[in-house]
Write a structure and sequence with these properties.
single chain, two-stranded antiparallel ribbon
Length: 211
């Protein structure tokens, strides 16, 4: 009986793993839920390190516990421009890279996630409602939910938990990730600037196929 139960559990784990591989983020972004993110930094001055690493977009190591599972050696950094400089407090937006220091690390099949502080939206609802509307109408948009964030045991605030647009995102939306992915910079206006690619480099950054 124990042998049959063990075989059943192993089969269930393999099936769930396969489902996660086919639909990264399927569990995280299903329904309306608030996840708790408990980050643990080894250094006492982790906040100084996060500020210092912001300009160069460097990640600092931390462990994070989510839904009772501890992910060790993930990369954490402050992100954003307006959400960083225009927000007066320490509740800055965060980007988490689970495979920064351990290449095999994933969170529900995802390599990266974003924790947005909603600096211009006191309700913290606009982004979630807008992205839900796009996703439910078959627009290739990121998915979103909410997260309570704790840094070294201190409650840091409620964040929007937003799917990161990367190769994993491209693969789930377009069945491949071979194409070019561009990030619109702050000056981007999505207007036609002629056929010369040089005209676009100031406004759009290539994030894939860079070599």
């Amino acid at each position: 009986m124990h042998r049959i139960l063990n075989l059943f559990l192993i089969s269930l784990i393999l099936i769930l793993g396969e489902l996660n591989a086919q639909n990264p983020g399927g569990s995280v972004f299903s329904g309306n839920q608030i996840l708790d993110f408990h980050f643990y930094f080894n250094q006492e001055n982790f906040l100084d390190s996060l500020y210092q690493s912001h300009e160069n977009e460097e990640y600092i190591p931390a462990n994070v516990e989510i839904k009772g599972v501890l992910y060790d050696s993930v990369g954490v950094r402050f992100k954003g421009f307006s959400s960083f400089h225009a927000y007066p407090g320490h509740k800055k937006s965060l980007r988490i890279k689970f495979n920064k220091f351990k290449k095999s690390h994933r969170f529900d099949g995802l390599k990266k996630i974003n924790l947005n502080n909603g600096w211009s939206d006191p309700s913290l609802l606009r982004e979630k409602l807008y992205l839900d509307f796009l996703y439910e109408n078959n627009v290739s948009a990121p998915r979103a939910n909410f997260a309570r964030v704790y840094l070294n045991g201190v409650y840091w605030g409620l964040y929007s938990l937003v799917e990161h647009v990367d190769k994993t995102f491209l693969n789930t939306r377009y069945d491949n990730n071979d194409g070019n992915l561009f990030k619109a910079e702050r000056s981007a206006e999505l207007d036609w600037k002629g056929e010369d690619q040089q005209n676009y480099y100031e406004h759009y950054a290539l994030k894939t196929n860079e070599t």
